[in-house]
Specification:
Layout (H helix, E strand, L loop, with lengths): L3 H24 L24 H17 L1
Length: 69
Amino acid sequence: MWSAKDLGKIMKTCIILHNMIIENERSEGVNPEDWRDEGDEPSESINLEHDFTLIMSMMINRTKQVQDT
């Protein structure tokens, strides 16, 4: 489905974008450790439930749409 070369390019792009975002936030003086939305209270545990089959199905459909265009 995906070639190793394509996945490598995608991963490199994600890393570059991540680093650009971090660099931008640092220049603005944003400290992600200090940020908290108003009304947020620390929670001891987070319970996330995802339907893996639904997520995979959506990803496959999106991939097909991109390939068809």
